[in-house]
Amino acid sequence: MSHHVFWGLQTTPCTEAGHRTEYSRELEYDTRIAGAALGGACPSAAHDGKVRLFMKVDDMETIVCTLVPKEIPQVYLDIRLESKSMVSFWCTGGYKVHITGYRTVDESSADALDDMFYDPESLLTDGDDSDDGSFDLGEDDSADGSEDEDESDDDTWVTMNNKVVGKLAPKGKIVELPDDDKDESNRKRKAADSSEGKQNKKKKDANTKSASAGAGKDALGDLYAKKKAQEAAAAKAVKAPQPKKEEKPKPTGPPRENRKKGVVVVDTKVGTGKVATRGTKVQMHYTGKLKSTNKVFDSSRGSRPFKFRLGSGEVIAGWDIGVEGMKVGGKRTLHIPAAAGYGRDGAGDDIPPNADLVFDVECLGVQKK
């Protein structure tokens, strides 16, 4: 029968000097990485606001995830690593990274199961362990290359189930501590965590005060703007109201008037259809009057409309001039002098010589040339 066994690892970021601590080992069992989360801050580490977790499997190196404080503090992963793989972890940024996962072992490995709950070496398989009980997790590029395993305030503790079981020594080694030293290290770690918590609280209080001050300034600005708006409204109310300018009605006036070669053309209604141009055949209704007496001498109203070809001389010159440009549906009044009408000869008994004429015309249709 197989069992899933939880494991966890804490990585320390690279320092500003470029020192990188790798946690390396050859896996004994198939292992899965289930998640990564931000740990405590490391002020001495170089960072750009983002924390990146790296992993190297055999010769392949990759970024596992990118964490951002307050925005992406934790990610869930599902990465399967096969046994016999050489695996390394390290991180960059201003925070430690906690890696969690599980591995599957069979019931025959009962001794290994018991060791996993207290031995930090259980995450990664037994390798070339040194005689002093430590095991190598990677290379350290420190300048002096010395190994100082004495406890100090800058020690990086290796924890299991929230209890110190070892510490990270130079050269990337983890040294398992005796039971007495473990108790003392746990006490120091709790004291350090408490001090760090107090510092974070002070920073939070300072940020809260700063935000409160900013909010106060914004509130004063709003009050000032409100007061100014009230003063402006009061001044506007005191000011004598200006009389409204009376809108002058649009002049209706006489219809549009145009003079063409002595002929006065007045549009009484502008059409919307085809335009009458020279050479087109137009269909008209008309009423003709003498200008001097306003006497009607001819009209097509009540009978068939009059048709002619515009500009071909089929009608008097005043008609060729006055009808050109009309649109179907339009109406005009044409004031035609005698020179553009029937001239000195007149026309029968109804139109005397040298008579000025007035025609009311309506365009009924326009045919193409």
What does this structure look like?
- Strands 13, 14, 15, 16, 17, 18 and 19 form a 7-stranded antiparallel beta sheet that branches. A 4-stranded antiparallel beta sheet has the order 1-8-3-6.
- It has 3 helices and 19 strands.
- Mean pLDDT is 75; it is low at 113-154.
- With 369 residues, the protein is of the alpha+beta class.
- Helix content is 20%, strand content 36%.
Rg on CA atoms, Å: 52 Å
Q: What structural class do helix, strand and pairing data support?
A: alpha+beta
Helical fraction equals: 10-25%
- Individual helix count: 3
Oligomeric category? single chain
- What overall form do the CA principal axes indicate? elongated
Amino- and carboxy-terminal Cα gap: 103 Å
Number of strands: 19
Strand/helix succession: EEEEEEEEHEEEEHEEEEEHEE
Q: How would you sum up the major sheet?
A: 7 strands, antiparallel
Q: What is the average of the pLDDT values? A: 75
Residue ranges: pLDDT <50 for 5 or more in a row? 113-154
Strand content: 35-45%
Annotation keywords:
369 residues; alpha+beta; 7-stranded antiparallel beta sheet; 4-stranded antiparallel beta sheet; 3 helices; 19 strands; 20% helix
